[in-house]
Amino acid sequence: MTNRCEARPDDAVVPALNDLIGSTESMIAALDRGDYDELTMLAGVRQGQVEGLERRRTAPGGSARGGPDVQAAVVRLQERTEELKDRMRERSASIMSAIQALQKRRFYDAGTQRRE
Question: Domain limits at 70?
Fold first, then answer.
């Protein structure tokens, strides 16, 4: 992701980064609720926000990294994104464990029925 904008870097990028942080937090909440339809929709919104940031350009004389506000927002975004990734890994592991438990139970139940 690039932290560049057409005007003053901090003024244009910080609100966009904050929107991206908000979308990431909404994705975490949807994942926690198990609302996969909303999670899918929010993933599309978030991707559009990322693409919008990637298309921005640095103003003449502006820093591509932006000022302290931009850097702080990027750090917050990275933290929230890592939390989202961790939660998705946890949820995936839980789902896989549940699937394996169901498979074992079906195998056990099938074996028990054959013996009867």
Answer: 9-91
